[in-house]
Amino acid sequence: MRQPAMTAAEVKDYLIEVFPQTAHLFEIDEIAPMRARVRMLTGPEHLRPGGTVSGPTLFTLADCAFYVVTLAMIGRVALTVTTNCSINFMRKPAPGALVCEARILKLGKLLSVGDATIWSEGASEPAAHAALTYAIPPRRGENVG
Amino acid sequence: MRQPAMTAAEVKDYLIEVFPQTAHLFEIDEIAPMRARVRMLTGPEHLRPGGTVSGPTLFTLADCAFYVVTLAMIGRVALTVTTNCSINFMRKPAPGALVCEARILKLGKLLSVGDATIWSEGASEPAAHAALTYAIPPRRGENVG
Amino acid sequence: MRQPAMTAAEVKDYLIEVFPQTAHLFEIDEIAPMRARVRMLTGPEHLRPGGTVSGPTLFTLADCAFYVVTLAMIGRVALTVTTNCSINFMRKPAPGALVCEARILKLGKLLSVGDATIWSEGASEPAAHAALTYAIPPRRGENVG
Amino acid sequence: MRQPAMTAAEVKDYLIEVFPQTAHLFEIDEIAPMRARVRMLTGPEHLRPGGTVSGPTLFTLADCAFYVVTLAMIGRVALTVTTNCSINFMRKPAPGALVCEARILKLGKLLSVGDATIWSEGASEPAAHAALTYAIPPRRGENVG
C-alpha cells in the first residue's frame, strides 16, 4: 500500500501555515497509509441549543480530517479543495473532545475519495459519518489525459 | 400551498435567542411558502488559502438557511436538527456577502427535505448546492404512527 | 448562456446506440440550455412491495436524465460517468410514467454538477431529488491544467 | 452489541417473498451484528458502454445490502424504505460477481443509518461506496415520542 508522504508533525506545521486561524483547534493523533486520526477540542462557540456540538462543527472536523489524510498522502498541495461532502448526523455529541477517523478509498491523480467517522472522545458509537471527495489540482505542465 | 407560520423578523428574533453567538452573521431577506433567502456577511475568519470563502462557511450558511425555512413553516421548534447534508462545492466565492436560496421539497411530520443554493452576492452562477434533511422532533403526546 | 450541442432527437439516437437494452424506457421531452426533461415508462419490473416504484428505478431515471442534459451540452462523449449521486426519496410514486427535470449548475471541463427532480406524471409534489456529479473524460491531447 | 434477529437464510427467504423478480440476483454470504455481506451476480443487462457494470447496478446492490443488514437486525418489516443514499463511484468494475459489505452505524427506532462498500470479487480496492439511511415505519400503536 502507498505510504504517506508527510508525518503528523509535518502536516500539523502545514495546517498552522495555511490555516493560522483554526489550526490550533486540531491535533493529529496518527497518520497511517490512507488513514488519519484527528482530534478537535470544542469550546462554547461550537455548541448549539441543548448544549450539544453543532452540525457545522462536525462538518468542519470531517472536512479537516479528510484534508489531513489527503495531504499526508500527496504532500503539500494547499489548493486541494472539497468538491463534495455528504454527512449523516447520528447522535448528538456532548461538549468536549471529538475524534475523527478519516480514510481514503480511492486516491487518483485528480480526486481523493473516502470517508470520515466522528466520535465523542471515549464514546463507542459514532456521532457522525461523512463521505468526502477532494479535487487535487493538476501540477503545472502535467497532462491529465 | 401551505403558508409560513412565522415572518422573517420573527425567525430572526428566534435565531438571536437560540444562536446568540452566530445569529448576527445572518440576515433573512425573504420568507415565502416553502422558500427562504438568507444572506451571510463573511469576514477574514471565513477565508481559506487563496482568499476564498471556506467550505465550512458555505456549509454553515446552507444549514442555517434550511433551518430558517423549516422554522418559518413549522414555527418555534428549536431542537429541529440536521440529519443529512450533501453539499457540492462548485465555484470559489470571493470574500463578501453570500446569498442562499433554501427551498423545502417535502415537509412531513418528522422530516423536512429540500435544498439550498449559494451565490456570491451579484454573481450569476452558484458557488455551492446542498441537499438537506432536517428531523422534526415529535410533539409531546403526538402519535407519529 | 451556453447553448446545447445536440437536439433531443440526436440525444435519443445516441442513447439507443450506447444503451440498446434500456434506451426504450426513456423519452426526452425537452432539451434547453443547461436543462432537460426526461420521461420514464415504468412496468411491473420497476415496482417494490406495496406497489410503488422502486428506489433503484428512481435512481436510474435521475442518473439517465443528468446524463442526457450533460451530453446535450457537451456532445457525444459516451464515457462520461457518474462520480457521485446523493438522492433523497420523499414520496412513493404510483405505477405509471415518471417525469424528471435535470439541470446543470456547473459545467466545467472535467465535471458536470447539478440536480434532478422526479415527479409521478401529473403530481404536483416531487417523489425524489438527486444531486449529481458526472466526470467528463479529457479529450486526447488536451491539457487540463 | 445488539444481535441479529434473522439468519442469512431467513433474510434470503424473505427477499424471495417480497422481491420475487430480483431476489435471485443476490446471495447473502454473511450476517453479523450490524453487518452483512451480500454478493450480486451481474449479467449483460448490467453493463454499460465500455463493458463495465453500470452505476444503477451498483446502487441496486448497495441499497439491497443495506436493506439486508437492516432487516436482519430488526426482523420482517417489509415497508422499510430508503430515504437517502449518497454514492461515490470510484473504479469501474469488470463484469462478474460483486461483493458488498454493509454496516449499520446507528440503529434507531425510526432510522437505520450506515454505509455499504462494493468490490469486484477478488479485487483489493473498492469500486463504490455509499452512505445510506432507511426509514423504519412505526409499529401500530407505538408512540415514537
From TrEMBL, chains A, B, C, D:
GO molecular function: acyl-CoA hydrolase activity
Xref: InterPro entries: HotDog_dom_sf, PAAI_dom, Thioestr_dom
Entry superkingdom: Bacteria
Keyword presence, Phosphoprotein: no
Record flagged with keyword Hydrolase: yes
A Pfam family it matches: 4HBT
Ranges for domain Thioesterase: 50-124
UniProt keyword list: Hydrolase
Alphabetical list of NCBIfam families matching this protein: unchar_dom_1
Designated name of the protein: Uncharacterized domain 1-containing protein
Organism this protein belongs to: Oceanicella actignis
